[in-house]
Design a protein that fits this description.
about 160 residues; mainly beta; 6-stranded antiparallel beta sheet; 5-stranded mixed beta sheet
Length: about 160
């Protein structure tokens, strides 16, 4: 079992986020004391009004890549598997998705009128927004500047 440092919940070995509170669990080097991978990020208060002319970009922390979401479309995030059964719109494999606990079908992002919504699709290691766990299959409002964790893969959202 792996104890959460935030809420003291006992989690299964290999879990990357606490099943109870969503806090990122620690990663250690071959039995060494663990250190947090990411801490909680302050919640942003500006920028949830997504006007029609605005573009939405996702940039992945530690990479120089950013992707643009298509207007009024839904976009799935995950990683492709070798047999082609999982085919997300955005394949996170090039960003170390397997090692960072990203599921094959991890999350869904959708523009709805003047808002951007994120939904975890029941992923194994969860999705966090600004350090708070997103409940599976429950849409969550995304704001400009929010940090999203797909498992342990960090990304930032920008409205331009």
């Amino acid at each position: 079992m792996r104890k959460c440092q935030e809420c003291d919940h006992d989690n299964l070995v290999g879990a990357m986020v606490c099943e109870d509170c969503g806090f990122p669990l620690m990663t250690g080097q071959s039995g060494d004391a663990a250190a947090p991978v990411y801490g909680a990020v302050p919640v942003h208060t500006a920028g949830f009004d997504l006007r029609d002319e605005m573009r939405v970009y996702i940039e992945f922390v530690g990479f120089e890549t950013r992707i643009e979401l298509k207007p009024n479309a839904q976009t799935t995030f995950g990683r492709q598997d070798t047999n082609g059964a999982a085919n997300p719109d955005v394949d996170l494999t090039p960003y170390g998705a397997f090692e960072k606990g990203v599921s094959r079908t991890h999350a869904l992002m959708q523009r709805r009128e003047h808002a951007l919504m994120l939904q975890d699709l029941g992923s194994s290691n969860g999705t966090l927004v600004n350090g708070r766990r997103v409940a599976a299959n429950q849409p969550r409002l995304i704001q400009d500047g929010d940090e999203i964790m797909f498992g342990q893969l960090a990304a930032r959202v920008h409205f331009v």
